């Protein structure tokens, strides 16, 4: 697909100040236009599917739906949209999850003022953008795994990951049911399936797992 003369961008982050800063930075470039903003992953998916958007910048950790979950959903439903992940964490787990979800780039917030423009342009060219130490991480992981294949990333279904995130955020079954528009009985069944699949016993262990998966922040 040819690169548009002006790349239409959606920014998703739960901090208005950060969104405003990124908007100002990107709108200053003649080939960029920020056309929409979202404060969580679910809103980002909704707007990206509805608006004429070429690229979405997603914060990794957001309420309701994480940036990684939103990226996976958009990659599945509208694969032509380019995805850039934004994170305050130099985390191997977040990096791997983001790339698996279909992201073209991973930018640390500490370097966003200099890296985000390059990341957007790289994504629109069909290239990838990673901060320097991330490249080292990927090479090391490839060597260490030696072609053994995927680890535990696909144990849980997307719906189970949604339930797990809300459990780890200390929501009750009633609150989870209301948030996901399912019955309390269905929530309890998902909870038990998650525990059984992961071989865990309680919410504390699930929370630790959710942190490792990048679903919530430590």
| Helix-strand makeup class | alpha/beta
Helix content: 40-55%
Strand residue content: 5-15%
Q: What is the number of strand segments?
A: 6
Q: What form results from the Cα inertia axes?
A: globular
Order of helices and strands: EHEHEHEHEHEHHHHH
Largest sheet composition: 6 strands, parallel
> In whole angstroms, how far apart are the ends?
39 Å
Characterization of this structure:
The protein is of the alpha/beta class. The protein is 53% helix and 14% strand. Helix 1 (16-27) links the parallel strand 1 (7-12) and strand 2. Helix 7 (158-168) packs across helix 9 (184-198), helix 7 packs across helix 10 and helix 8 crosses helix 9.
Please summarize what this structure is.
With 218 residues, this protein is of the alpha/beta class.
List keywords for this structure.
218 residues, alpha/beta, 6-stranded parallel β-sheet, 10 helices, 53% helix, globular
């Amino acid at each position: 697909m040819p690169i548009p003369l002006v790349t239409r961008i959606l920014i998703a982050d739960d901090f208005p100040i950060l969104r405003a800063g990124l908007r100002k930075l990107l709108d200053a470039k003649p080939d960029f236009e920020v056309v929409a903003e979202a404060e969580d992953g679910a809103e980002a998916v909704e707007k990206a599917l509805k608006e004429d958007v070429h690229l979405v910048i997603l914060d990794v950790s957001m309420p309701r739906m994480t940036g990684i979950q939103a990226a996976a959903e958009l990659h599945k439903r509208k694969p032509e949209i380019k995805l850039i992940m934004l994170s305050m964490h130099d985390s191997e787990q977040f990096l791997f999850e983001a790339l698996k979800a279909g992201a073209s780039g991973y930018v640390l917030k500490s370097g966003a003022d200099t890296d985000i423009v390059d990341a957007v342009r790289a994504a629109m060219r069909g290239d990838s953008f990673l901060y320097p130490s991330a490249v080292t991480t990927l090479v090391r992981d490839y060597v260490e795994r030696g072609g053994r294949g995927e680890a535990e990333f696909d144990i849980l279904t997307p719906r189970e990951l949604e339930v797990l995130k809300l459990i780890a955020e200390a929501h009750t079954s009633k609150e989870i049911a209301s948030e996901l528009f399912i019955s309390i009985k269905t929530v309890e069944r998902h909870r038990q399936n998650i525990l059984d699949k992961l071989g865990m016993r309680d919410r504390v262990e699930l929370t630790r797992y959710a942190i490792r998966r990048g679903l919530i922040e430590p």
